[in-house]
Structure formats: C-alpha cells, structure tokens
Specification:
With 258 residues, the chain is of the alpha/beta class. Helices cover 40% and strands 24% of the residues.
Length: 258
C-alpha cells in the first residue's frame, strides 16, 4: 500500500540531510513501525508521506501509484494522519461535531444524518460528546476524537505520529487496543512512528529502526520481542527500552512494600 524508495529530506538548500535515503514498504492491511530516539528523523518521514513537507527527494507511492510532492484532494480521502498531541490538533473553539464534519465539507461529500454519531461510537465515545469542546474532554477522549476525525472519510491508510505518547500509561493501552480493533474491522493500513518499543510491538508486524536519519535495521516484531536484533544501535535501543521499563516499575514496588 505504501512504498518509500530512497527518501531524502533536508530543511534548507544548504543544510545537511535529516533523512538519508531510506526505503521501506508497508503491505495492505498491515502495520509498519518506525522506531528510534527523538531527532532521528522518523516524524520527518511521516510528514513527507502525508504531504505536510513537500521538499523531499526520492519516490513515495500509494497503492502502486507514485505521488507528486503537492498532494491532490483525493489523496487526503485515502490517507489521514493522527498527531501526537490531541489537544494541539483540535480547534479549541469548535465543538467536536463541527470538527468531525469539516473533513466531509472539505471533500465536498454528503453529510449523512448519523455520520458523526456513528464515527464517535466506532471509537468508543458517547455521541453526546459531539456537542462539547476539546477542553471539556479528557486526554484519552480527545485522542479518540482525533482518530474519529481521521476515520470519518473512511480512508484505507492512517499515519500515526506518536499517537499515545501524550497520554497516561493506562490510557495508552486503551488507545492501542482501539487502533488494533479498528484495523481488524476496517482492514486499515498503519504506518506508526514511536520512540517506544512496547507501543511498536503492540501494533506492528514489521519495524524499521532509525538512527541519524537512516534505517539501520528492518526486522520482524518477533525478533524485537526475543531481542534478536543485529545492528549495535538496535541492540542498545532495545536494551535501553527494557531498562526504562524496569525503572518505571521501581517506584510502584517501593510504594507497595511501604
């Protein structure tokens, strides 16, 4: 569904490359993860694919068709993006309902009577929340609204930019489970960007590990879970991720023993 070939990105004509000729393929109906530390270029890749950054080199194809840097309106019916910060990606002075209707208006599509309530139910929200403003919702509810806004056009592809990193750990699991269920129900293709190995392992079948703007290793999720990664950076990243998880548990253990 998504094919990226020799993608390069720089932020100015004389600046160094921040993405250095990476290539990968995402199969239809599957989830592919880009993982790496902050600043490695993974979100920059997502912005190039989404059309938010037109200044890139290489080739990006969707469903076998090469994309032009300036995306057509039809592209956004097929590809929608869910951003990291649900509060920042929603208009603070518009109701949930009006923000869900907006993509339909932008695409000159008919607004069916139950369109908003149906998509809110699909993401596990009460349709009555459609008359609230973003500040009246919890962080998890806001991210569900952001997912609903992406789904209302019924696209086959979702680009997920750290969709759970701004949420509490318990809410993260709920959103990840929701995304997994939606993929099964709708046959969605996901490209997920995250710095968190656990998040990637929850959703993705294949993973590209990035460092310094390059893909240093592409592997299956079973190799990630078992720790059988090859590149030294991949090994360090996986080790750090596991150590961080253990550190997060220590304060809980101390509190319980007290």
């Amino acid at each position: 569904m998504i094919d990226v070939e020799n993608l390069t990105v720089r932020f100015g004509p004389r600046t160094p490359l921040v993405v250095k000729g990476i290539s990968f393929t995402v199969e239809r109906g599957k989830s592919f993860g880009l993982v790496g530390e902050s600043g490695c270029g993974k979100s920059t890749v997502l912005r190039a694919i989404s059309g938010l950054n037109r200044n890139y080199g290489g080739r990006i194809s969707l469903d076998g068709k090469p994309l032009e840097p300036e995306r057509s309106k039809a592209f956004f019916r097929d590809v929608q993006m869910v951003f990291q910060d649900p509060y920042g990606s929603l208009h603070p002075r518009k109701t949930v309902r009006s923000q869900l209707i907006e993509p339909l208006r932008n695409q000159n599509l008919p607004i069916k009577e139950n369109a908003v309530s149906d998509v809110l139910k699909a993401v596990g929200l009460d349709p009555g929340l459609g008359y609230r403003f973003p500040h009246q919702l919890s962080g998890g509810q806001r991210q569900r609204v952001a997912i609903a806004r992406a789904l209302i056009l019924d696209p086959p592809v979702l680009l997920l930019d750290e969709p759970t990193s701004a949420l509490d750990v318990s809410v993260q699991a709920e959103i990840l489970n929701l995304l997994a269920d939606l993929q099964k129900e709708r046959g969605l293709t996901y490209l997920l960007v995250s710095h968190d190995m656990a998040v990637i392992a929850h959703l993705c079948s294949r993973v590209a590990i990035m460092n310094g703007g390059e893909v240093v290793e592409e592997t299956g999720i079973e190799q990630i879970r078992s720790g059988h990664v090859q590149h030294p950076y991949s090994q360090r990243l996986l080790s750090a991720s596991r150590a961080y998880g253990k550190q997060e548990m220590r304060p809980v253990e101390v509190m319980n023993s007290a």
